[in-house]
Predict the structure.
Amino acid sequence: MIQQPARRPIRSVAVIGGGAAGWMCAAAISKSFGRDVQVQLVESEEIGIVGVGEATVPHISVFNRLLGIDEAEFVRQTQGTFKLGIQFNDWGKLGDSYIHGFGTIGRDLGLMPFHQYWLKARAAGRAGDISRYSLNTVAAPLGKFMVPPSDAPPHSPLAEIAYAYHFDATLYARFLRRHAEKQGVKRTEGKVVAVQQNPDTGFIESVRLESGAEIAAELFIDCTGFRALLIEDTLRAGFEDWTHWLPCDRAVAAPSQNVGPPTPYTRSTARAAGWQWRIPLQHRTGNGYVYSSQAISDNEAQASLLKHLDGPALADPRLIRFTTGVRRKLWDKNVIALGLAGGFIEPLESTALFLIQSGISHLMSLFPTLDFEPAVRDKYNAQMQFEYERIRDFIILHYHATSRDDSDFWNHVRTMEVPASLKANMEVFAANGQFFREGAELFGLTSWVQVMLGQGILPRNYHPAVDWVKEEDAFALVDHVENVVAANVGLMPRHEDFIARHCAAAPAYAPV
């Protein structure tokens, strides 16, 4: 009989830093391992978090369900609203507007996705804008929203509504804290002033707080934001800088008063030196201008943001400096970096919380033992590097596929060299409208098709297999999808009515 080596499970995890990253991780580990793993989180009330309002992608609902979180309660407690997609204004050229919606476009037929039949119909003058064939992109500008009803017929667009959320990131962290502490997570207030490493292995053994307290653990999660206290300051994991592709390196953010019902979509408006976000919440609207400091001064960016707010500002703009890129090792020794400590990709497609969630998911599937096998660590790093790089390419696409030439900033991003992987995707799509998803990358066919078309990349032809379907059948499919989508959107309530009926926050609560 083969003698199996003794198992050496990890029994203690220390999450250093709070915010959404810290509390998401603490809640997930405690939910997954229960009392078998002691989870403690260290954070300081004196250290602010980069919580300026958050837009998400649909994956966040999966994470919340795994934690056993009630959706309506979560939306109420975070002043949340719902999100069907992102509206992009002035990106392809000044005056342009399109929506990158979640969900699907039309109905596939045979081997070909719907947009291939749409390309043929459009060439024949038999189809409108691609946005008319997706429930999300029709419903969003009309202010319509609902979750999929339990009695929706199979294959009805209403049965397949894909959505995400807008919410106050600070409130989300507090919500998760309450949830995690009920599961046994221990929180310690304090600032880390020293890190103790094993002199032989370099592994972190404990951190010392300003109070003198020592927090020891076997596995450390670095959620210390841009400071990257453990992964970089201590372990020197290294950083891969992507500023040459994504030159925006600053943001100014300010909340404003609501001036109308919250829209069920995020709005991104391209500006001369970057872009401005608008995230509607129940109690206020989140706004920010992401820009390149080489193209505009901080004062000019602040003035531009305030000028373009929909309603009066509720606070002075806050400056955030960042460098786009990723750690060369997100897992080094016994430290895993999540959130801003691991890397940063500007929030153009609302991927920040997804990358945290992805890191947690990979950690759960590759959770180490005290042996910290290098193969397990390397697999984690490879998977996360893939996630970051594919999202990076998708973000670069928005900048590079443009005809704007009205500023030095847009001239630069339009003409710059881009990663070979992105260039190949653009060239294949431009040829005959194809896109090939790589592995389990976040953004799939629907996303790439909508953004490439929205940014002005119109394929020269459609796939030849489309001609295997009778022309009248192909055109009938396109017409049928448009009619079905319009009819189903007509059945949806208004976004604000849905919130009022199911998940309105207490009216007395109105923090800035």
